[in-house]
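Friendly challenge for the regulars: who can give me the structure tokens for this chain first? No prize, just bragging rights.
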Amino acid sequence: MKTLKDFNFENKKAIIRVDFNVPLNDKFEVTDATRIEAAKSTIIEILEGGGSCVLMSHLGRPKGKQDEFSLRHIVDDIKKIIGVNVKFVDDCVGEKAEEAVANLEKGEVLLLENLRFYSEEEKGDVAFAKQLSNLGDIYVNDAFGTAHRAHASTTIIAQFFEGNKCFGNLLAREIESIDKVLNNSEKPVLAILGGAKVSSKITVIENILDKVDHLIIGGGMSFTFIKANGGKIGNSICEDDKMELALDILKQAKAKNVQVHIPVDVVAADDFSNDANTQICDIDSIPDGWEGVDAGPKSRVIFDEIVNKSKTILWNGPLGVFEMESFAAGTIALGHSIEKATKNGAFSLVGGGDSVAAVKQFGFAEKVSYVSTGGGAMLEMLEGQTLPGIDAILK
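First reply, four minutes later:
Bragging rights claimed.
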């Protein structure tokens, strides 16, 4: 796996695929700069190695050229975070972009305009990728969030950099962290899968059953398993058409000696609202008109014990509707358990949109081993898929 360490960037122009698809408010201010911060170490390392950086990214889903999706809106934020001046050119291919790159001096950074202003980007157009390749000497992919897309800038461009392509620091860390969980883990290995639907996690579960010793199934998806086993779940979320599958997963787990843990009690609410009436009840005895919205106190104690016996922990998905303060306690308790296990030497990887949002919201981001930046890309890797953006660098 080639990384920045394998190249001398002295007087070289690195064209870097970053993921600056950041959320903006109605004043075009960045509301979460995590993705920009994540790219900083790659950019700084190349600049300190005597090179210059040409940054390319998409932003949103524009239909053609739309100013509201222009990357010029985030230039000041990038300057502030990276700590160096950032030039901007309002195109990403063609004469204007090529001239801006030609004028780029050693130690400088240039941001190209939104790649998705051209439909050729998402189509993986070879001619478009060739035009992008004219803008650098070395291609660096540091965009894990888009590594599962075979787009021009994430995959196709790599063919024009035979021997001159590598992973940036962020993407290298993502690959190493997921590999550590799936292939080089210290046992016992625990996977915690939460969220609403079994259907969105089936392939992940099937792929990781060979790698884990314990599997905690929490959140909304737990009710499909409980109902499949004859439990009463009241008005809780359930995928009735996936109950057979849930039973099959439990059978597979048993055959592979994987211990599956599902909450034993829940916080139930009489309405999907922060102000609802609540009660604690056994997960298989939820009264009609009530729905499970969080892991209960007994479950939190059981999960804490399992987490703290584990040496490798993967967390993907919350244990309850943590966005509502009244139903966040289970997810917060799990965060504390993982924090404690990490302090005691366990390797903990958190990934997937909702769990990443939860660890940030409750202050656990710095207290776990690694927080993945790519939701869809991480899930596909956990499913055992080869990601085109990664494969293109390894070829």
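The chain has a mean pLDDT of 95. The CA atoms of residues 89 and 205 lie 45 Å apart. Your move, everyone else.
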